[in-house]
Amino acid sequence: MALLQVEGLKKVYADGTVGLSGIDFEVKAGEFIAVIGPSGAGKSTLLRCLNQMVEPTGGSIVFQGAQTIGSGRRKLRNIRREMSMIFQGFNLFERVSVLTNVLHGRLGYMSSWRGALGLFLKDDVAEARRLLERVGLREQMHKRADELSGGQQQRVGIARALAQKPKLILADEPIASLDPAASETVMSSLHRFCSEDGIACLCNLHQVDMAKKYASRIIGIHKGQKVFDGTPDELTDEMIRLIYNQKPAEAQELAETDMARKETA
Ligand SMILES: Nc1ncnc2c1ncn2[C@@H]1O[C@H](COP(=O)(O)OP(=O)(O)OP(=O)(O)O)[C@@H](O)[C@H]1O
What we know:
Layout: E1 4-12, E2 18-27, E3 32-36, H1 43-50, E4 58-63, E5 66-67, H2 73-81, E6 83-86, H3 98-103, H4 112-117, H5 122-134, H6 150-163, E7 168-172, H7 180-197, E8 200-204, H8 208-214, E9 217-222, E10 225-230, H9 237-244, H10 248-264
Parallel strand pairs: 3-8, 3-9, 6-7, 7-8
Antiparallel strand pairs: 1-2, 1-4, 4-5, 9-10
Bound molecules: adenosine-5'-triphosphate (ATP).
Adenosine-5'-triphosphate binds at residues 13, 15, 17, 19, 37, 39-45.
């Protein structure tokens, strides 16, 4: 059984803008998938619909065998703790310590009053320290988050995501604000930890070279539609040109021809 099954996923925003116009795909446990496409294609909308930070307007999302659309608050909280998110702008609490930011990854497992008072369990604190060591930030754990560089802050974001013990990480352009060296560190850390812990990842990326380097599968989106779904090798230069050069119909046609060729081979 797939970890995640998405069928006919749609999002039309209140002002009538179509974010997603019916997307289908599956994610297997432990798969590392890059999502690419031009600006405004619907990549963020897709990730945010999956954890329902953005409410889908149609379709179905089955996560670990259960339909998530229409879930009540309690069920949604349980779904979200197993689907952690990494953000382009890190989304850390800047004035609190790095360690506390990682501990926030445990909030979904605590009663709200314990969380509000910051009464974290001893085991959770030990695990947060271990995770910070794992991402190479042991020395920084008592610093305020805003004292860290962008690349270090994103590694805190990764440690926080891992603290949730997720089955799936949704990474929304995790390296868009970073320089090339920090981007490599963040992508290689994210890839390594997902692989070591058997976590699936859907990672929105603008950098096609990074998508090809780290993902085992790439999904291409254009104008709210899936126009490519294949391996890095199958993402040819021609396909990239079609996805980014506003010719999704031609890209889809090329993908279908490739698929038919693979089936008959
Ligand atoms: N809150 C919103 N209200 C109305 N339209 C929105 C809203 N959020 C996104 N959109 C629109 O939905 C479409 C998809 O946007 P989305 O942010 O998902 O694209 P993206 O591929 O992530 O783009 P980028 O790479 O620039 O971040 C765009 O046309 C965008 O303007």
